[in-house]
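Pilot study result, target chain (241 residues):
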Amino acid sequence: KALNDGSTDIAVLLTEGIVKDIATGGSSKIVGVYVQSSLCWGIHTGAQQEDITSVASLEGKVWAVSRMTSGSHLMAVVLAKREGWDPTSLEYKVIGNLDGARKALLASEAHGFLWEKFTTKPLVDAGDLRRVGEIPTPWPCFVIAVRNEVLEKHAEEVKKVLGIVAATCREFKQDPKATAYIAENYKLQLADVEEWFKSVDWASTGTPHVPPDMLAKVGATLTELGILEEAPDPASLTFAL
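Predicted structure:
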């Protein structure tokens, strides 16, 4: 939304979300991959919902989503496909954010919720949520997108920004104090952060590149799931710097 209304020029976004946005008329282009590894989504329910004992128990239940077409919504559809459920039969409750999901699940207003598993770990540890499964994104999880107008006028500056981001990612990955910094600032257990840190692969070569076959897979999946009417041409989603 911020890219489309001009309030943001450059953003890091979930791959599937920005592919869907650009394919349906969004005014930006993908210029590079930010995180090459997949995102592991935890499949959660309210800790008190004793009838939900597994992923299979969530068939036909209500899913909490931050907003429609968000990652939590799109991955619920991907999960339905994996489990053999009818994606068009899913019911949703829009909850805005993580705290909204916590409240909805504790009140049994929703029964399932997909969110990055380490972010929700404190709520699981606190006994508010219970994780019943996981599902990884079948592609690199985060990409960088830039407004078309900015790319037309400032492509070289954007390329320099991407180089700085890549260098910073390399330095951060090699910093022995990085995990402690993350744990302190995000109120997470150090052991959880260390496990997450090992799994993250930032695109830190400094050379902007977006594999067309990866975008084709995202587009084909979103089309198969009924989120897009037809798969977009990967070339229409990107801008080469």
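One observation from the pilot: The CA atoms of residues 61 and 111 lie 6 Å apart. A full batch analysis is planned for the follow-on phase.
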